[in-house]
Specification:
This protein has eight helices and 18 strands. By secondary structure, it is of the alpha/beta class. The chain folds into two domains: about 210 residues, 3-Layer(aba) Sandwich (Rossmann fold), CATH 3.40.50; about 120 residues, 3-Layer(aba) Sandwich (Rossmann fold). Helix 2 packs across helix 3 and helix 3 packs parallel to helix 7. The chain binds asparagine. Asparagine binds next to loops. This is asparaginase. It is an enzyme of class 3 (hydrolase).
């Protein structure tokens, strides 16, 4: 087995606070900041450190601006360099990291090397930055090769990417996977939770990249007093899918039964309706309560314990991979890469 220092890691900088500098209009990512700061760290050249290269995106983004094109760019970058490296560290803004990590978990079919997303809450160029520690931990995890899946390494924890949500905009502990065990705890030792890790079989035909296409989908969060009729206008043939963020185990307010006929019409137009929960823990179970029964009767499908982030990414994947409507509907409640518990 290769030791860590014999491993090769590609660090991909996409943008985000970690490489930002304060400007007149707020923080913005600045080219070469991460590269320069990392190169100056003696630990990055320590004899036991894996060898590493850094690839910086031409246009660096606050992650609020990351969309389908950038996901494809990230996926392609990993795909193109897959054979040359033992693992990948993706430096990314925290705001949409959970979406991007979810997207990569579907886009990179047959992945059996670590892809570790990280970033920081304070830029590397400022004192008290959490960035260096996050980067060092991520490099070690990418090099160890135990977690051969898309994960998020942040503030001493390793989480499954498609199970993660951003929890805090100002704490160092910015992420959690509230519905799934941590993949590792990072202390003096990196303690992997073997039972929680994906165990991909080495894929027969290697890594496959499924680039995403733009997709007209919507996320609707229900709330007490919601006037469903306002949403009728968007439920046209143009819409391909909706993620409905419901209460508890998949419950919706009766509100004069306004939603169900709208959902039924949308379903008849071919729209895939996936039911997720506003709760961070637990699962959707349509039919447990009378307030959810109607949803399955009009064609909606329960997304079990999937995060909204994972549900959105999965829809992009399934439509881009050109599955049929029936297959997409079935697959939204089936586990593909550790994103939900069946
Ligand atoms: N707005 C930043 C981003 O997501 C936040 C961060 O990285 N901490 O790019």
């Amino acid at each position: 087995m290769k030791s860590l220092k014999d491993k090769k890691i590609l660090i991909i900088y996409t943008g985000g606070t970690i490489g930002m500098v304060s400007g007149p209009n707020g923080y913005i990512p600045v080219p070469n900041t991460v590269r320069d700061i990392l190169s100056q760290q003696s630990i990055m050249h320590h004899k036991d450190m894996p060898s590493w290269d850094i690839f910086e995106f031409e246009v660096l983004l606050d992650s609020s601006n990351v969309g389908v094109a950038e996901w494809n760019q990230m996926g392609r970058c990993i795909f193109d360099h897959y054979r040359d490296y033992d693992g990948f560290v993706v430096l990314h803004g925290t705001d949409t990291m959970a979406y991007s990590a979810s997207a990569m978990s579907f886009m990179l079919q047959g992945l059996d090397k670590p892809v570790v997303f990280t970033g920081s809450q304070i830029p590397l160029c400022e004192i008290r930055s959490d960035g260096l520690e996050n980067i060092f931990n991520s490099i070690c995890i990418a090099a160890e090769g135990v977690a051969r899946e898309v994960c998020i390494c942040f503030s001493g924890k390793l989480l499954r990417g498609n199970r993660t949500v951003k929890l805090s905009s100002d704490r160092f502990i910015a992420f959690e996977s509230p519905n799934y065990a941590h993949l590792a705890e990072i202390g003096i030792n990196i303690q992997y939770n073997e039972g929680a890790l994906e165990r991909p079989d080495p894929p027969a035909d290697g890594l496959k990249l499924v680039e995403f296409r733009e997709l007209p989908i919507g996320v609707i969060k229900v709330f007490p007093g919601i006037q469903f009729s306002l949403f009728e206008g968007i439920m046209t043939e143009r819409l391909r899918a909706i993620v409905l963020e419901t209460f508890g185990a998949g419950n919706i307010p009766a509100s004069d039964n306004a939603l169900l006929p709208i959902i039924k019409k949308a379903y008849e137009h071919g729209v895939i309706i996936t039911v997720c929960s506003q709760c961070l823990q637990g699962t959707v179970s349509l039919g447990t309560y009378e307030t959810s029964r109607g949803l399955s009767e009009v064609g909606a499908v329960g997304g079990a314990d999937m995060t909204t982030e994972a549900a959105v990414a999965k829809l992009y994947y399934l439509f881009s991979a050109q599955y049929s409507k029936e297959a997409i509907k079935a697959m939204m409640s089936q586990n593909m890469c550790g994103e939900l518990t069946e």
